[in-house]
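Task: encode each sequence below as structure tokens.

Item 1
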Amino acid sequence: MQNRLYTIKLIFRNRKVNQIIADIIGATGGFEVLQERDTRKPDLLFFELGPDAEKEMTMIESLLKANEVGAVFLTAENAEPAVLMRAIRLGAKEFFPQPIKIDEVKQAFETFKLQSKELKQSGEHKSGKIISIFGSKGGVGTTTVAVNLAMSLLQVKKGQSVVLVDMNTLFGEVPLFLEITPKFHWGEITKNIERLDNTFLTNILTRHESGIHVLPSPAYLNGHVRPTPDIMSRLLDLMKSMFDYVLIDTGQSTNDTSLRVVELSDTLLLITILSLPCLANTNRLMKSFLDLGYAEEDRIKIVLNRYTKNNDISLKDAEAGIKKELFWIIPNDFNTTMSAINKGKPLAQIASRAAITKSFEEMARALQPLEVQQEEKKWKIFRR
């Protein structure tokens, strides 16, 4: 069976630019160029902005809202910051200043085809699981857990899809941990919620080389509309239909939106460390979630991070204090963890054999559905 050809509409004023793009398409393959009179909806519109760029972008924005085009690539001689920001706001997937850099356009085409293929596969309508990672206090390592658990979930079962949502609404750090430079963040969703569907969300997400999809928080303060509980409900419902796992780094916030995330989560990983204040906070948070009806006890799992054997507080004392058995214990490995963070890499990519990396892999297995865990055990017996 031949791979599907994606339809593309080219609208250029500059004949030289038009020829360059046509040559790239010919070399790349996978696209059918729609002629001027062809009325089919293009999967991709590649448009060259002219002197009246604002008027043209308003027109393109209306086409996107009416679902008359799929993704949009833009190019222009004028690459001033105001034009670039307007292009981002309307939802353009790529913007190419002129003169055109051929390698950048080639890479953008390949990325578009890959994301479109993933979108088609996700159209089978998954029934994904939401796992939120909540810190009992600041600095306990929620982002470290979220990033490395996401990576481990990809690895423990071939073909699983994972999206990582950064809900640290002030300077979230997920992109730093994965060394990615996202073009979009959840602020694009909050102000375009009426356009939210599979295609729009796929265009907003950033794909890490490992296969993890990321929805980051804004990197700076500029009046972004914060996500509301209703927006999060709609967003997570869509993500569950597209991905096997939706991981949310919620940080330590207990606002209405974060509490809605807790309420919608299949599993709440409450991260703590062996310190008296942290364990006390863990106990209070868990009791609050239970008493207010945000989560049932079996959905709350306590994860102990940075464990060392020579701590003043024993594991037995910790469980007695929080009145609940620890779900998982992540060993302390400061040097390896900091090396991974500073390099912008998950632990699996820089220290695959380290005890802390193996711990995340085993936790990912423990979070799999029971039937998957049983199947894994059968294969282990078979391989002996």
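Item 2
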Amino acid sequence: MRFEFRTGAWLGGILTLMILSGCGGGDAFTDCDGAGLCVARVEVSRYSGTLPLSPRSGFWTSAQGPRPVTVELGPQLITNPQWPNPSIKSVTISAARSESEIAIRLKWRDATRDLGQGGTHPYPDQAALLFPLDRSQDLPPITMGAEGEMVNIWIWKASRDPALALPPGGAPASAAPGQAVEDLNAEGFSTLTRQAHQDVLGRGVRTEDGWEVVYKRALDNDDALDARFSGSTPMAVAIWDGGNRETNGQKGISGWIFLKFI
């Protein structure tokens, strides 16, 4: 299954989401799929056993593996500094679940490998997933949520990935294997907070023309700040190209994507 759409359609969809996210009722986690609030749908099939953390695992590319969906990324025009022309224009998403875990794989083209090591390359390549927390509310603003509308954000940075980031002298990076992803929360712009307890694992690999990253977490836990995956859920994606000096609000963003449990 493959979804592609024009930038005009993407921007119109984002504006519609901004209008509709704050009004109405019902379960937005369900309504997202049928009410035109989500710009794409990714099927999350169920598999047995442990889901692979490695982006290079044949699980992700086999005929029996998760179906990839390509989603367009558009400009960030909601807050200053606006970013009308992000480098990364699309991302391919695959997702899977087991009885206890969910794993999501992103793949995108990026001409440069940016680890954010200072000098002429101060900004790392990054990719984030965003999930709404409260399923009794409508969808929060796509950017960073809003006051009273908290979101859970999983962000991978090339600078944190032990397999990629080597500081001067070549010593191993400080992050433990699999902990290249930070588990965060936000309730609007400039409210990003790192959770005391980090529950998300992640790993990235550099390909010939870009990046592949896998995020993995338990479907559920007792942390009130974490998204829960008891069923289908909306998700948004943001990607930063460090080589294009992208950081903070300067990024490419998707509309809401529906992770459909099947």
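Check on item 2: The mean pLDDT is 85. The CA atoms of residues 154 and 183 lie 5 Å apart.
End of task.
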